[in-house]
Amino acid sequence: xxxxxxxxxxxxxxxxxxxxxxxxxxxxxxxxxxxxxxxxxxxxxxxxxxxxxxxxxxxxxxxxxxxxxxxxxxxxxxxxxxxxxxxxxxxxxxxxxxxxxxxxxxxxxxxxxxxxxxxxxxxxxxxxxxxxxxxxxxxxxxxxxxxxxxxxxxxxxxxxxxxxxxxxxxxxxxxxxxxxxxxxxxxxxxxxxxxxxxxxxxxxxxxxxxxxxxxxxxxxxxxxxxxxxxxxxxxxxxxxxxxxxxxxxxxxxxxxxxxxxxxxxxxxxxxxxxxxxxxxxxxxxxxxxxxxxxxxxxxxxxx
Length: 303
Known about the structure:
single chain, alpha/beta, Rossmann fold, 2 domains, two-stranded antiparallel sheet, 12 strands, 36% helix, globular, disordered N terminus
């Protein structure tokens, strides 16, 4: 229900008893804007399946953002020919792929009665465009396996790292073999980004906060201390129905992906990828290996 206006008796025109209505709008049909991103030849079915399940519980407006595949062999062969025809044929092929995926996206949304919009872009990966669209979105959903796969099949490749760093809203990286989530694991390191990721998850997915949830602090040391544990307990227990807290005594970058990979139907919540993409060349993130294993969706939010 929307209330368009309410009249108040305490507003008057000077020198008159005439009442002036003050207008207020109360919108009780607000929707989240979710950005669905496809960056190559294959349509990310796992990411769309996740969205379909999500929208069954809470309506949302989807925006499909599509980028051309990065076919370096075709681009290179076209660039060696001193005429424009081969290059134009490459671009036509790329745009045909984008249009096919756009049509598939629109058709799926229409058949499921999902409110949607398809972005006009049909160019190759553009970090600036991606960042701008995320600025005006509540959430990004993308494939952890297919993201710019022509630019490197070993994920997260440089393009996915760049996207996760550049995003100005939370991101869910979804495996193609998506399984419904039944358990949440929160990677906590005491930083502001790890708390930020918890807050953003609660605001975006209150329907998931009834799931069994474990907060995990990982550090290769003998101490059992977890930073600000009492504050953390007070905050999380206000938002989650079933909470547990653990400390794991090993190096997260080396063993965390193996530990979490033994669990099934899990979503990982983390504040990773706040650092610039190039910095991960020297210092790897534990979240990278979790994404590379394609075993579970990963929710990422950073300041």
